[in-house]
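WARN retry 2 of 3 for item q-0093 after timeout on previous attempt; input resubmitted unchanged.
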Amino acid sequence: MRGFDCYVDQSGCGLMLPGDHGQWHPAKKPTTFRTTKKSLYDKLWRKCPGCPYHVPIEGSARGFGNRSSMAEDYPQRLAKKLADLMAEEPAEDDGDLIMAVPEVLPPLEDVPMEEEKKPEIGPDEAIILNSRLRSEVGTQAYTTM
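OK item q-0093 returned
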């Protein structure tokens, strides 16, 4: 997708996590949003404002739990800014935009659809393909959620 990679350090948007001794400090969680709106890129992009210390996101804080779980959601300030910018009317320099689909879609013409033809795979070929997949992707291709 063409567009802009908008970099945001979440510490500059108010992400705070508890340290090892319970004090709250900024946490630098680099995040990139891919957008086709140049105005969103221009207004949202930000680096850390220069915090002298960042709490690591990895690990846990006594009495609070895993810091990574606490950092799953965007900070409220970032979420509000992102929503406001997405709702803004496009600026002139936004160029080609991906626009929302209208709520009421026009009816499709009666076009005959071809059925998808799946190739026949024999058991020996399936074993070879599975083996190749495992060697390329690893065992995570077989894990279940």
